[in-house]
Amino acid sequence: MAASGSDLCSRSLRKRRLQKRLTRRGATSRKCTVNSGQQLAPEDAPDDLPEDATEDLPESENIADEVLGAQVAAFADAVMPRPSHRLVKKQLLARLEALAQEVLDPLAKLYPFGSSINGCGEASSDIDVSIYVPPDINEETMLASEALSRMADAAAGRGFILLETRFHAHVPIIVLEMLDNKEKPTGYTCDVSFQHLLPVHNTRLIRTYIDMAPQLAAVTFVVKRWAKAAGIAGTWEHFISTYSWTLMVLYYCQVQLGLPSLHAMARKHKRNGAPPPGERAHDAHFLGLQSARQRYCPEEVTEAGLGGMLRGFFEFYAEVFDWENEVVSVRLGERRDLEDANGQHSPLFSAQLRQSKIRRGRRIRYARGFPHLNIEDPIELHRNLNFALKPATFSRICAEMVRACDLLDAGAGLCDLLQLEKLPVAKPRRGRSSSSGRHPWLAGFLALGRRPPCECSQCGEQFKDFSTMLGHEKECNPMARLLFRTLQL
Fold first, then answer.
1. Is 341 exposed, middle or buried (CB count within 10 Å of its CB: 0-12, 13-18, 19+)?
2. Per-domain residue ranges for the chain?
3. For the segment 153-203, what is each residue's pLDDT rounded down to a tens digit?
4. How many CB atoms are closer than 10 A to CB 104?
5. The CATH number of domain 83-198+448-488 is 3.10.105.10
6. Residue 120: closest CA among 292, 248, 278, 305
7. In this structure, what DSSP letter does residue 345 have?
8. Beta-strand runs (E) in 137-237
9. Residue 450, burial from CB neighbour count under 10 angstroms (0-12, 13-18, 19+)
10. Which of 18, 63, 240, 325 has the lowest CB atom count within 10 Å?
């Protein structure tokens, strides 16, 4: 649903109204100027101006991309985690892994995932972690609720406090908070699951993109903050998740700024490439960081600057993106429609992308899913991340996207976009980019760590590639485990 001529005309009128409104309430005084990497005090602006004074504001009055980029950089520098946060989170993971090895199995390992690892989180972000115990074909598989119940019972008095249990959720978890040496809460929390390694692949994919072009971390973080401030983030309120907003930023950078698709690069450069995209339900076959750096120069994306990248994101989705039929596909990295002009489904996408799974007790049925803002999960190809949308919430997302674009066009700064009185002041970060290429913004995030095992977490069957293993694991059930156990005897 690209913008029409009448839409652009109405946007021009809205832009002028916004310019007047911003000037009247002194919004130009909140255009934070940056000098030597530091945010300065806001400039003074007159309280009242006649209406005709802002009738035709020249483009020179609008905030420059360089200034907007400096605000984005200062904001990211202030709220992104620092090495001290990373050290505390590493201590939490080490303590939790020792507890799991004592309570569950000596071979238990932790696999963290989520925003504390993928490079798009805040200093206050919690840690998502899955406990993995290698399955034994000669023993019954431990249920997630049983394992997590044992962990919850053992956590008390062992350096953690139990905050919440969700044993009956689709993915059972417990929420723990680490205690300090004086048995006081530290504020560092973790969501613990069991034998749930699928999100680890999504985390590795996003972190590889962020490591390729670290400026993506700041733009992605600002977009997520904007979505939360606008109230359009969260599937529980029938919007889309922050993970979906991250994918939308990556997709914009791919189709507008030349960021390559790691999946496409893997199919092109690896001998044993993945099968055609439409033939499988999972695709964890993407290029790693070292191989990607050898074939891609990040300056191709970041030459637009942080301000230009942020402004371009809102312009792309407000004026160019087809909300009705286009698919946000980071896996493909190119603009494709879900259906052609004749209504035929594209073979590039899973047929289930148009379907919605409905649970009624133990029964599961499929119905036609929400038709707009299709966002393909780059790992679970059959999963459309618009599953929670309703017509009203979809319209709200479209309206907020246009409003944000109009705000930036009218001369607003980052404070107006994020609905803040002022930007937080960043403390100086020690050091610059290391010899290994790590950007200072990424120094506070946990490392990716070990790769997840390429074996079914239910029956223990080994596979040569993760995509096949993930497809098998989704279908694995007690009967399949019994059959595999019989074949091993």
1. exposed
2. 83-198+448-488, 200-419
3. 999 888 899 999 999 888 899 999 999 888 899 999 999 999 999 999 999
4. 20
5. no
6. 248
7. B
8. 160-166, 173-179, 185-194
9. exposed
10. 325
